[in-house]
Description:
By secondary structure, the chain is mainly beta. It has one helix at 12-18; strands at residues 8-10, 27-30, 41-44, 80-85, 88-93, 96-99.
Amino acid sequence: MPIQIQFRRxxxxxxxxxxxxxxxxxxxxxxxxxxxxxxxxxxxGDGTTAWSSLAYGGLRGPTGPTGPHGTSVNNLDGxxxxxxxxxxxxxxxxGNAQGI
Length: 100
């Protein structure tokens, strides 16, 4: 029998209305955009703090200067583009990328 794991989840309005204290390590997923956050953000409980006072967390890093991954290049057309995000540099030339 396969194992299925589901995390607590709800809309921003549902979380605000309930404002539960999450167990230590318990994940709470916000399924919609609300409260200035994107959809599918999460909070991790510590066993004592109410949902409204917990910081958002997740697997997404900070937003860079021009987007979620730093400088965005859509079409090089054989040219060269360089970026440096969080101390990690990368150079792309004519569609070939080098970095780290």
